[in-house]
Amino acid sequence: MRLIRLLLVFMGVVVFNPTAHASGFIRDAEIENLLADYSRPLFLAAGLNPNTVGIALINNKSLNAFVANGQNIYFHTGLILESEDPNMVIGVIAHEIGHIIGGHLSRKASAINEAQRPALVATILGLGSLLAGAPDVGLALITGGQHVVQRKFLSFNRAQESSADVIALRLLEDTGQSPNGIIRMMDMLADQEILSEVSQDPYIRSHPLSRERVASFTRGAELSAYRDVEDTAEMRHRHKMAQAKIRGFLDHPSTTLRRYPSKNTDMPSRYARAIALHRQGQLDTALREIDALIALTPNSPWFHELKGQVNYEAGRAANGLAAYKKSVELAPDQPLLLIGLATTQLSIAETGGEMSQKFNLAAEKNLRKALRLDPANTTAYFQLSKAFGQMQRVAYAEWALAEYFALLGRPESLKHARRAIKGLPDGSPEKIRALDILEIARAGGAGR
Fold this sequence. Notes:
single chain, 21 helices, globular
């Protein structure tokens, strides 16, 4: 078994695995909205439909962004935290779009397969030498084959990165944005090439850099008519607010409070402090900071959302209801706000009373709207199952759970779909969907 593991490493199975993340995905309407606003002009300039390109945020403080699974761009929270201004993030997005429209993802898979062929031959020959009693020759063949793979793949990767650089410059030019951000980002990353791989940001390893490449990018950027264009004050403010929010939720509260001391009365500081105080259980102090933010910007849905969330998580759902309603009123097409409101309504309904049915029905309405806007939202389906359960609509609750587990690719979806079918009305959308889940499973998939 030890020999097999060794051969797998040499054959490239470990070296060329797609980036894996122990950290989970996180959802936040405010930050997703910001990234969408950064991206939209670039998508349109690239001929991409913004509605068909996925944007996802990963809870990981290392600096990274990458394209995977088709037209999907994944951002580490660290990219936002390490970027001094929006233009640095925008430059990275332009580069990643270069990979999308260059078709680099599909070409990379072919390049890996092609590069691994000589390694496989060398491994087989090396294994033969090992078995024949010539371990030095065998290990030399295996190691040499691996080096060939690495050289071929790195050469291919550098060509792809250079191609994406050219596209990024063109997209920034077409949208009237400065290339300075991506140059500063690349210059910062190029300094890390002397570090060991363990200490490098993942962006270095997935996007090979060199001083020559940075210099080439800089020469191309010198021709830009928009080199001195700066981010708007609004974008800079939103960027700082996103950084404050991420730090508030991800850093230890004491770290956040040191970074944003009470003497600082600017909005990012108040935002980060409110979140940190909430996480410390200082509810009243947190709410005072949030109310101060609302007084400054009463039409921000995100401050009302935070007020609702803080009350809900403190076990005071009824106190947070008005705040969540206000957030939805200000941003009616944000599915995560609708889910937050519905979750609060369900919590109130759970306590019973004559208004329970009204709150359950309101939650169902909000969750169905959220799913029309975000059909793959597992949280919405889970909460919908709770709403139906509290209203004693068992078959509908089973359908919602079937959808939930199907989206997760879990086999439990089949059990819940079979139960749902027995009680759902013939021809109803829910019964059709439950039947679809079973049909897809029969065709070979656990979900959809």
